[in-house]
Amino acid sequence: MNILIANDDGIQAEGIRALAQALAEKGNVYVVAPDTQRSASSHALSIHGEMRAEEVPDFPGAKHAWKLSGTPADCVKLGLEILRRKGIETDIVYAGINHGANLGTDTMYSGTVSAAAEGMLAGYPAVAVSVCSHFPEHFEAACSLAVKVFDRALETAGKGYLISINTPNLPQQEIKGVRMARLGQMTYDEWFEEKEEMCFRYVGEPVKRTDHDEDIDVRLIEEGWATISTIKYDLNDYDALKQAENWGITL
User: Among candidates 122, 66, 125, 69, which has minimal Cα distance to 95?
Assistant: First the structure.
């Protein structure tokens, strides 16, 4: 098996190194990651200017690794091509391990989920893996689930969805277990701090909610469970489209 790993925290992040070493038992690991922090870059692509890939020697767990002056989605799109040019056909794409949660509506902004989605859109099985802390200390549960879901993930090729794993930042023995979860709504107490005249910094803290159903990822993580979600990229509202057919709009 040939495994392509990307992330959004950058080539230097501890999470991607932990994931590469964990997945090395499942096959040949190849890493293509941003050369710097690219969190919350969503599915941006570098369509203007050039991207430079530079090989990173002695990357733990990986056959080869490159840092790329591009976005997480670039890393997968170009990473697949780099490997193809070397005669290596990718079997599965992983993204992570992200330093921070990718829960609920935050997946819309996530570079990690978007990197996995780029693999999924190209027809490959794809998995995003995250630890729910910006300063993670415990990667063992995320690594364990990434390996355990591997064979199941291979079955998703071409089916139009990706798998997203989130774990609390706790020792594995302190996590309650694993739950399949729907995506919930992330809410923030947010504002823009004006650092100087017309120069702003986005600031926000998650708001703890009590109205989430029992199978919602946000709630389950707060309660100490690890979660697995399936994410499909279909933006169509089919009911609304049927209603729109009756609008009678003509040129």
Answer: 125
